[in-house]
Design brief:
Distance between the termini: 81 Å
Structural class: mainly alpha
Order of helices and strands: HHHHEEHHEEHHHHH
Number of strands: 4
Largest sheet: 2 strands, antiparallel
Radius of gyration: 30 Å
Shape: elongated
Strand content: 5-15%
Number of helices: 11
Strand order of the largest sheet: 1-2
Length: about 190
């Protein structure tokens, strides 16, 4: 490997790796060799001088053979198709699993055909009873989900408290309480 403009020689890099193995820090090594701490970090993590004294890799980190599964991405980095498939399948549940998990929620379909749960996105499915109790007592937490806020409004209005007083106690807009009261009246009708 030829690097005519490099500050470090092959012998320097071998020595740096030995010092790293002995426990030297990046801050200690950088001034010794006249390079930046970032250069030492890249040597430590194998981003620079990675093929020095090593045989080329024949398998990925999950032991898939490169001969069968490798390809070069647009940046020229070698990738493993088997690992990419594993990552893609573990990221997203199937449509049926997603629908089963969000059964009874308000679902929407995007323009690309993907389904998402509007109820979870709004935070309607998450109610922390302690947060609701604090809000009803007049000490609301910094953040209430939509469901928690609606529950607190419902409890305050059920006690006969006015909408304006409920808004002040929860430290929210009076319009939010009016909207929730209208929803309750509509549901009761």
């Amino acid at each position: 490997m030829s690097r005519p403009n490099a500050k470090l020689t092959v012998a320097d890099v071998v020595e740096i790796r030995g010092l790293i193995a002995a426990g030297a820090s990046n801050l200690d090594l950088a001034p010794l060799y006249g390079v930046s701490v970032e250069t030492i970090r890249r040597i430590r993590h194998g981003h620079r001088w990675r093929n020095l004294g090593e045989a080329p890799r024949t398998h990925c980190y999950h032991d898939h053979p490169y001969a069968e599964h490798s390809y070069l991405d647009p940046k020229g980095k070698r990738r493993c198709r088997a690992c990419e498939r594993l990552c893609a399948s573990s990221r997203r549940p199937s449509r049926e699993e997603y629908l089963a998990k969000h059964e009874g929620h308000e679902l929407r379909t995007r323009t690309d055909g993907a389904v998402f749960c509007l109820s979870c996105w709004r935070g309607e499915a998450y109610v922390d009873e302690i947060a609701v109790e604090r809000a009803v007592a007049g000490d609301p937490p910094e953040y209430l989900t939509v469901a928690e806020r609606a529950e607190a409004i419902d409890r305050l209005l059920a006690t006969g408290m006015s909408q304006l007083a409920a808004a002040r106690r929860l430290k929210i807009s009076g319009r939010t309480v009016q909207r929730r009261a209208a929803e309750l009246r509509k549901a009761a009708a």
